[in-house]
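Reviewers asked in the last cycle whether our approach scales beyond single polypeptides. To address this, we selected a multi-component target totalling 777 residues and predicted its structure end to end. The input consisted of the following lines:
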Amino acid sequence: MTDTSTTVRADRGLTLKQIDIRLKGEPVIALDAHVAPGEVLTVMGPSGSGKSTLLNLIAGFLPDAFEASGQILLDGQDITHLPPERRRLGLLFQDALLFPHLSVESNLLYALPPGGSRRARCDKVRAFLDEMGMAELGARDPATLSGGQKARVALLRVLLAEPHALLLDEPFSRLDAERRAAVRAFVFDCARKRDLPVLLVTHDRDDAEAAGGAITLAG
Amino acid sequence: MLRLAPPLTLTLLIGPVLAGLIGVLALAFGYFPALGGTALSLDAFAEAMAAPGFARSAWLGYWVGLAATAIGLLVLALFLAGWWGTRPFAPIAALASPLMAVPHAATAFGLAFLIVPSGWLMRLISPWATGLDRPPDWLIVNDPAGWALLAGLVIKEMPYLLLMALAAIPQTAPAARLNAARAMGYGRVWGFLTAVFPGVYAQIRLPVYAVIAFSTSVVDMALILGPGTPPTLAVQILRWHNDPDLDMRFVAAAAAVCQLGVTAAALLTWWLGEKAVAWLGRKAITMGRRYRRDSVFRVLGFSGFAVIALTVLLGLIALFVWSVAGFWRFPDALPDRFDLMRWVERAPLFAEPVFNASLIGLAAAGGAMVLVLASLENGHRRGLTASTRALTLLYLPLIVPQIAFVFGLLILALWLGFAGQFWAVALAHLVFVTPYVYLSLADPYEALDRRYFAVARSLGKSPARVFFTIRLPLMLRPVLTAFAIGFAISIAQYLPTQLIGAGRWPTVTTEAVALAAGNDRRVIGSLALIQSLLPAIALGLAALVPALLFRHRRGMQH
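The resulting structure, written as structure tokens, was:
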């Protein structure tokens, strides 16, 4: 899985060292991999193959019932035992999970790291929406967005939090075929432009191929 | 027939509230021919407001009610934000249901037994820490500012709010939203408060309003813990009502209208507070601060709930210890001997109140159960679910201050001659029992897989037969639990029993509250303990019976 051409900056990116997750002693999923900045690693497998459990471990949400060994490094920093809020990972799920009590703009402001005046922050979010061609969505109630719009806003929210890596958990599976390709291209494009390492878990071969990176099978 | 169930239920809920309010308004404005009032006037209001301490009485209910709700909600929010989803959360939160089932009067007496100058807490720290060998002469309970009442309301209402919140949380995708917030770098507490709690609060808003209405106008707890002179407005209304001079009923009615105003003012204040908090919250969210160092708030939330739960439990133990206490000198932590014979001696005294309370409770809970099941089954057959408006109507008896409309209802009952009748008392209880029975049954009713009934119908069974042979057995546990909750609500009722019963149906609750002014802790301890035992027995049976009946059915064990 390791891309030898990036050994110069080997400590950048997301490194999973001999990850092994077990439930009551039974192996759930095991992985040893490095995802370099701008690269995508796809973990493909049917539901129940433990791929979401893997993401939970990396993000810091593994339920107590599981035992895990191995080490997770992000840009050289060991994040294995950090609380989720200190890991600097961006998570995208199949549901957009936009907070329903906030407007689209407030959802984005929520993600923007603290600092700057209220006005500067609002300007920044609006400029970002504008840059992404979604300026008119800012004032909207998230519940009124289409599935594709929700998925895009969810990505913007993740990106605004300035993550150092993206974890994608079947983020396209709720979209219809037509929107799917467009949203998918949008997500991978954004990640590549920002030089983010991406870990995608999916059961869908199209998604895996569109990601364009290495594919490893789970389950 | 079934089609009539929902309107009948709503009529039985709303009718008494409206009739009571009309009665109180008529009396307050001086028009009540049966009592000699034939012309509209504002004299009764003038007299009520001129009474010494009137403004202070009104203020007491207002501030104590608002403060109790605010503190309860704050503890709830911090406890959920700091601990929801962690390993210790579920077993601790499971305490909410038994804590809520402890009746108001028992909770209040338990608290009083702990904190009075000669109470357990003072005994535990005396004389070694305080140097006292006689109880100090402090007014801790019945203090003029209402702090003891405030404390009692908080420990009574916070578990109720927790129970409501626990039911609401699963519908807000809590884990996913909290994880999303934390992945963006938010601390657990602030992440929960900003990403999950707004959705929870939106669903428990009506219960919160019910807590405000209850706390601003409570009578039984105020008689036990509240200030004496002047008392809270609700207690003052009761005093005027009990005045031998029948003309004082007009004054009491005018004060009851003022109580409506006090509660409405408290609700309005709260509503403005909601707006302010939402505005501040949105402002804070705009700035994006992460507040990752939140261990202080987690500790606060945990200890807040722990103190509340421990106080109620220790209070119950204090009730028990007093009920069996022999001679108990002041600084001693325990009585010199325990005397179970005291229970045996007093047993004949308790027989009637226990019998009355159980009979009224069974009638009210049974009646409510029939109404609610019929309404739900009607909705099920016609594919209807209760609208938000219908749910709001359901909360009406809980949001209109009890003292105001029960008092008006009594006036009507006296006039029409049914005060003191058993069915009138049971019907008055039904008004307060039905909402809770409905709220605890509605979700399980919807949750059951509809295909069971489709299968049964296609086997040629009539809808009624399907209801009795499939629906009820499958729902035995929630039905019995709802019945037990209704029974518990009925047992705890003081005002409807005392007023509509015209004193002819003494229950454990009315007898215990009547003793509040006296000082016989041994009898109070026994009565308050029995008052808590009755709902506990009901809830215990509701858990035990289905477990026994279905012990050979693995699919029925949850």
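Chain B touches chain A at residues 87, 173, 175-177, 179-188, 191, 194-195, 198-199, 202, 282-283, 285-290, 292 (CB under 8 Å). We regard this as preliminary and will revisit it once experimental data from Aim 1 are available.
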